[in-house]
Amino acid sequence: MRTTTVGELRILLPELDPDDLDTISDPTDDLSDATIENVSWRGGTLDGVTIRGSRLVGVDVSESGWEGGSLFGCEITRADFSGTTLSGISIERCAITGSRFTGIRLTDVRLKDVLFEGCRFDYASFTRVAAAGAVAFVDCLLTDATWSSCRLPNTVLRSCQLARLELDSCQLHGADLRGNGLHDLKTGLGNLHGVTLDEDQLPDLTHLAVQDLHLTVRKR
């Protein structure tokens, strides 16, 4: 069993042997045990598609629509999901690295044992995204993104860029936000209830409190 640890979070990851995978280029309703490399599904419709135990490398899924279906036990590298709409899908036990999710729209997506590393989520929209297990973002770009009504308890964010990330009606209790700049977050304090911070982030938290409470700070 392959695992990785981010902070205090242990994540189960896929363990794939490339020699056991078949090369596939066309999407079907059920893709299993496949290598899918440098394939373009740009602008396509992937509704109900399930991909299991597969490697996706350099795949272009940008501007596509994907409703229902799932990703399970997959390694995804250098994929492009820019402008894609994901709705009602499940992503479980996946390692996703160096991929682009600029402007993606995720609605009612379920995450469990998912590691995003070195990915771009700028201008992404997360709506009712829920973590049912371990989820981590490492060295990810989340600037100008929006998280609305998301349930992401115990999620870990490490060394991420969060400038102008907007949080609205989110539950992040137990989330570990250490190692990120929080100064430019667009959020009320309620969205940060129960999160873990380090001492160096307290000035950023003070700044957010002054904004949220509409305080006037004057010199004596």
Automatic annotation (TrEMBL):
InterPro entries: 5peptide_repeat, Pentapeptide-BTB/POZ_domain. PANTHER family: BTB_POZ DOMAIN-CONTAINING PROTEIN KCTD9. This is Pentapeptide repeat-containing protein. It comes from Micromonospora haikouensis.
